[in-house]
Write a structure and sequence with these properties.
By secondary structure, this protein is of the alpha/beta class. It has 12 helices and 12 strands. Strand 7, helix 8 and strand 8 form a beta-alpha-beta unit. Helix 3 runs parallel beside helix 4. The longest helix has 24 residues.
Length: about 350
């Protein structure tokens, strides 16, 4: 089965490798910077028509942010004309990078009804899909996002822990993924008192309040210099607690990485993050974190030191199960069998 994934170069998609599935490489984009995510030509109706003979199925994960509803309707028409079925994984019911949810919802209003197969990551998200569009989605939990060499790597022993915060700009979410799927920036501590916005103010306030977080390795994902996957994994595993400063969203690959590496994640009580993996939560208030809730969660993490690391054998088994499930879904869709 020749599958065009949007995108192909992403840790989640790479984890779906299966001997029956040939995933086509991401088409080159003239003028696009090397190693940086760029909108996929597979989302362009003309490109799809021109290369219809090369692909059996289109599987869309991420990357349709720049597509208008009319452009997506043209894509759906091209799929129908060429007989290429669409599988859509609904990673996000609410785009974590958009303050206005309307554009992403409008895109889903085109793609969800047109998809021959729907996949999502949690039961809660599947229930939302059923409520809004009357469609049943196959629920497949997120597989490991780190490689096997990291799944079993011992956590580093640190004799003297320090407190830090790296939310150096106000933002709606964790960092935008690069082409490899990880943040384009690595963490650095903010300068006290600089910047503005709810995320920056709250996390800096907690770090300076001399609450117990000052004796733990704490960081929020935020504004940082570039690094590769290994550097990111190493940084994340050195933390006791990683605070995800999302203000909205649905699922999180960063949370999955924390679970893989044994780092406690502290997430907001929005979306379906809590269904993905064990984690601590804090409440949102207005346009940012509730300070009391965030401080209490950090203090709880310091006091209890939870360890919720995924079992490597379970993760390897789960990865194979999810890949098999995708291959079965592709066979069903290509055979025209109803879900």
């Amino acid at each position: 089965m020749r599958v065009a994934s949007v995108p192909t170069a992403h840790p989640y998609v790479a984890s779906l490798h299966h001997p029956e599935v040939v995933r086509l490489p991401d088409p080159p984009v003239p003028g696009a910077p090397q190693g940086v995510w760029w909108p996929s030509p597979w989302l362009d109706a003309d490109h799809l028509r021109a290369h219809a003979a090369d692909v059996d199925l289109l599987h869309v994960h991420f990357g349709f942010d720049d597509r208008t509803p009319d452009q997506l309707r043209a894509l759906v028409a091209a799929l129908a004309d060429t007989g290429i079925p669409l599988v859509l994984t609904v990673h996000d019911l609410r785009n974590p990078h958009h303050a206005d949810p309307a554009p992403h919802t409008a895109a889903l209003d085109v793609l969800v009804p047109a998809a021959a197969g729907l996949v999502t990551l949690t039961r809660g998200a599947a229930a939302r899909i059923r409520e809004r569009w009357g469609r049943d989605a196959l629920v497949l939990g997120h597989p490991a996002v780190v490689g096997p060499e990291w799944l079993g790597r011992p956590r580093p022993l640190v004799r003297r822990a320090t407190g830090s915060s790296s939310a150096c700009t106000p933002r709606a979410t964790a960092p935008t993924p690069t082409r490899s799927g990880w943040p384009a920036r690595s963490p650095r501590p903010p300068r006290a008192g600089s910047g503005s916005g709810s995320t920056r103010t709250t996390t800096t306030g907690v770090a300076r309040s001399r609450t117990p977080c000052a004796t733990s390795r704490v960081s929020t994902c935020g504004c940082t210099p570039p690094f590769d996957d290994d550097a990111f994994h190493g940084y994340l595993q050195e933390l006791d607690l990683s605070v995800l400063p999302y203000r909205w969203g649905t699922h999180s690959g960063w949370l999955e990485a924390c679970h893989d590496l044994g780092t406690t994640a502290l997430v907001p009580d929005v979306g379906h993050f809590r269904e993905q993996a064990p984690c601590l939560t804090y409440a949102l208030a207005g346009d940012g974190p509730d300070r009391a809730s965030l401080a209490a969660a950090v203090a709880l993490a310091h006091r209890t030191r939870p360890v919720w690391r995924a079992d490597p054998a379970d993760r390897r088994r789960r990865r194979a199960e999810v890949a098999d499930a995708h291959a079965r879904e592709y066979r069903r869709v290509l055979a025209g069998v109803p879900a």
